[in-house]
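I'll show a typical protein example:
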Amino acid sequence: MASQVIHYPGDDLAILTWTGPFDIDECRQAFSVYLLKPAAADIIDIRRLYVTTIRAMDLFQLSRLLRSISMSGTYTPGKTAVVAPNGETLAASAVYRECCHLIAWAEANQVTRKLGLFHTIEAARDWLGVRSISERSLV
């Protein structure tokens, strides 16, 4: 799994992009590095992730990771927007549904961040209340 993080300090926004086959260990490592200096708003783009490689156990481990991060106090209050595939395939629909379950779990456990699920970067950006990519410069 390839992971890329772009940080826009002026907007306190980070965009995390994951591509290729999903790997839970690489996911943990990417979160560990990102959480050294998290942004108040972030977008996790999984549209180019090979969703057929995500297993139910991976999502369970992600929820445990989210829980441990939220309990450790290192999870900065703010908003996280997940941009998922649009459901054209059965696997994409299943991942979208599991992301909905993950968000419901986070709300039930009062995680200190609001989580949202979207099909486009533009919708995620609007929900986060940040400028479009074309309106900013990389810093």
About this structure: The longest strand covers residues 41-50. The mean pLDDT is 80. The chain has one domain: 2-135.
